[in-house]
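ok so I'm stuck.
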Amino acid sequence: MKTIVIAGGNSGIGRQAARTLLAGGNRLLILGRDPGKGEAALASFGAAAGRASFLAADLSTHDGVRAAARRILDENENIDALVHTTGVLTMAESRTADGLHPFFAINYLSRYHLTQLLLPTLRRAERPIVLMMTAAVSPAEEADFARFPEFTGFNFNRDRKPAQLGNHHYAAHLTRTEPGLAAGVINAGAVKTDIMRAAPWYMRAGAKVLGPIIFDSVETAANNVVEATRRGDWQSPLYWGKPGRFEQRVPIALDTATTQALMDTSHTLTGA
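replied:
not stuck anymore, here's the structure
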């Protein structure tokens, strides 16, 4: 039985992954911002809910991440896997309490920050695993990191890729600096979940019309998360780009100088 933390496990893909991992006999801690959704998720797990718990956490801010990490460390001596499925889809120019754009703060920086704070517990596992879910962005794609991390005057089309590629660089960094730890990035695919609520009206309308044709099922989207968490036969760091196809993955090979620069910036921002 593994102890698994799933950030975002109270809804969508994270909730489906949690349900499947619980069915496999694991113990889960799920994090989410909405206590109501957290309680609903636990109730949906049926008899397996006895091996699950929910922690309300706002991962959009440094203080929220630190508070969540303190609770997790206080209540869990060992963690075998940390899965980041929390995400936000927003194109508006807005800022968190830390002065960062929420797309960057939630979809990348919270993953770095929470993982760094939980590393002392993860290191106790025989083979600790860290997984980060993103939209489709291959590690082979080019990105301009000149606007990282401020992304002043946020432009979704321009800034989405460098913000999300931070996950790939962090996976590479963890592999290089944490012996025995396995890290990977997983494409969430196209799934109709609560993340669409903040999308522009035309995206929501398109999703409503084309959804039956273009959307993956939540079970398909969660498959690679579940398999990567369960299995120990993959070589870190990897990127899974095809939802539902665990064997189709590519190594994450990135410029080490760029990776180090992004990690230095992330450390400066969070202190972790």
